[in-house]
Amino acid sequence: MVSVDFNAFWRMQVNFDVRYIYSNNVHAMLNTYGVEATRATIIKEVFNISNAYGVKDNIHHFSEIVDFMIHSDGYQPMNRHGGITESVSLFNKMTFEIASKFIVQGLLFYLILIY
Questions:
Q1: Are the beta carbons of 43 and 64 closer than 8 angstroms?
Q2: In angstroms, rounded to a whole number, what is the distance separating the alpha carbons of residues 38 and 31?
Q3: What is the 3-state secondary structure (H, E, C) of 81-108?
Q4: Per residue in 8-46, pLDDT tens?
Q5: Residue whose C-alpha is closest to residue 26's, from 18, 36, 16, 17
Q6: What is the 3-state secondary structure (H, E, C) of the chain?
Q7: Could you tell me the pTM of the whole model?
Q8: At 57, phi and psi to the nearest 5?
Q9: How far apart, in whole angstroms, are the C-alpha atoms of residue 66 and residue 76?
């Protein structure tokens, strides 16, 4: 991963307006500016990607997902390796992964609880 040296830009603030420094490196934004800047970065990047593919969506929909991703003062991916696997809701898991996999797991777990 390429690191971002924000300090270098701050040292050159005579040449740059440091109020508008931005990076799409979520980890660097988190470590430098904190969780709110990370939230804004993720929303902006997801919104830009969806617009590039012609998906016109309301930015408030993305903000709900991003709030879940950063709720623990960090960030976690929204995939099978992130926090979604720790959710107790079967429907919450199906929203972001292959539904049939979680339906089968849910049925097996339910059958185990019954018998």
A1: no
A2: 9
A3: CCHHHHCCCHHHHHHHCCHHHHHHHHHH
A4: 888 888 888 888 888 888 888 888 888 888 889 988 888
A5: 36
A6: CCCCCHHHHHHCCCCCCHHHCCCCCHHHHHHHHCHHHHHHHHHHHHHHHHHHCCCCCCHHHHHHHHHHHCCCCCCCCCCCCCHHHHCCCHHHHHHHCCHHHHHHHHHHHHHHHHC
A7: 0.64
A8: -130, 160
A9: 9
